[in-house]
Amino acid sequence: MNGQLAGAIILVLLASLPLLSSVTIIAAGEEIKGLTFKSTLSDNILTVENDFYVFKLNLTRGAGVFEWSIKVEGSPLDMVRSEPYPLSLLIHALSGGKSPSEFTIKSEDKLYKLDYPGSLGYYSWNAEVITNESGVLVVELKPSLDAMTDIEPLDVSVRIAFTQWSPVVEYDIVFTNQGDSPVELTGVNGTVDVLLVVDDGVPGVWWFAVGSRDGYTYNVDLYNETMSVPGGDVDSIIIYRKSRDERPTFASFINPVDGTPSLVEGVKGFNSGNYTKPTSVLVKMRYPSSMLNPGETYEIKFRVGYIEFAPLQASIADLTPYMLKIDPEMGKDLKLGVGYVREIKRMNSTIQSLRDRVKNLQEKVEEQEKKIEESKGCEDYWKTELTVVKKRLESLREKAQRAALIQVASFIIGVILGLIGGIYAWRR
The pTM is what? Predict the structure, then answer.
């Protein structure tokens, strides 16, 4: 009886306290204007969004980027819209002696044969989040067994790093020889290829610039031709459009970091097998083949992004020296602060959003403090009640003990009287 009563009292006490753990400080999916940074993985589509872009990667098709929209005033601008192919940032590689796989795809109810980009760019990959903190998201991609068909016994992993405050995405590709003998890492043209795609769905001229901070070896239009540029000291590749006044407007860039391509190609239109897409513009970074001994690795690392051709984004992406070579007029824009007024307004809006959020959180904290004070009052009340009940239980226990003693004494007296009566009867 004692344990049951005490348990009931404790349950009543717990039920009377406010459920602090159920209080939501920030609602799920709620965002602060100007501080967007989120990611989802659903139906094999990895989506990452910040204040500069919306990035979508298809894990069922070579882990290629099929959508990359940049955020400008008004509607987002699609810089990649390339389903089913060509997907951007695909890898094409072979292990020595192998021929590339060929595939059939369906587009607009028609079947097409692809001879590019091989198993790495056709079959599925797996994704795992390595880091997701302090405004940095790092995702590691690894190919399925089917995707590795063209490169066995080599292995490959791709790490993609996204940053909240930057339009730049960083790629780190590592090939490893996990076999017991040397294996050549190569490709269909004797090179390991990384494919960058720009496709806004609009026919027209794109410009192709390849060079370095010191100047550009090539800066030409890709109207209907392919341009090949020796890699060498190349550390910047930019594909961009021009406005009517001949000023660059939007651009895609790729900057090699580790590993230098031996050849860079700019191609107007995608052609593979009997599948073509004339609105696509391709940049092929061709890296030299290499013989890998057991346990050795081969690394390709680069920075990539799609941006407005504007001073602020150029500065954030660390592209100002490159873009000034393409558009010297940008120097005047920098002096006049063109583009910065809009950014200052956006930052002021962000600051106001933060102030509103702080005020809202302060109100919620005050509300919780009141509930905690109320809960303390409830706690004191039930502690008093528990003390009273304990005293009652003690009193009941003492009474029970006295009653038990009386019963025992009565029993003993009865036994004694019975014995006396028996002895008396026997003597008679």
Answer: 0.73
